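Researcher: Next sequence.
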Amino acid sequence: MFTIKLSRIALAAAFAAASAAASAGAIHDANLFNGNTLAANDDGSTGAVNVGFTLNFFGVNHTQLFVNNNGNVTFNSQLSTYTPFGLTTNSFPIIAPFFADVDTRGINSSQVKYGQNTLGGHAVFGVNWINVGYYPSASDKLNSFQLILTDRSDVGAGDFDIEFNYDQILWETGSASGGSGGFGGTSAAVGYTDGGTNDVEFAGSRVNGAFLDSNLSSGLVHNALGSNTLGQYRFNVRNGTVVVDPGPVNDLPEPTSLALLGLGCASLALARRRKA
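Model: Next structure:
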């Protein structure tokens, strides 16, 4: 298996372009996933949560996962790490729509919500990080993003789809990750990995300013993958292997190592430190 890394160049060439006036509306059916709430916290997680169907993620079947406050879900255990590390150097499976130091204790922040439901005739499991703040208890800027996992056992046993949806990305970093006012330091990482050699990390991961709404070229809300909706990124998992959803647009990334190099190693030590 090869590693797909999405660079700024690939994003510009392959993703749907957006004008300065465009705005994302990718989060959909958010009310379907409001059945459970992760109480206001910093670096917290749920216990093992039933997905409601089987996920064959690179040959390993999962029926449960952990919802982590910091913008990701894991399968083997909870994850309290708040500074994002390189997903291509990670040793355990994780799906991360926006791995950063989410803190939902701020006065204007909402809490993380999740749950099972049905969408488009398929069983789904979704997580809403809608209007969430950043560390320490800051809510002057709020991010809104969503993860949806869709059962596609109608195609094959264990098959499913991954969908990342973004409506608003106004901050990228918590202050314990070297940021100030939500910016700078070691900023968010986006992608997934099986903890081995199969991984996708969006270029712009841990690159200051890359994913923000203010970045009209590589901002998450200004691009799309496998979708005509800006801010929406779709992947199919078939027979345990993740492929890009061909979707309605010609936006397939090349399977090459175009990403900016050397970003993962420098942040690994910081990623595993605890907050003071």
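Model: The first strand starts at residue 4 and ends at 6. The chain has two helices and 14 strands.
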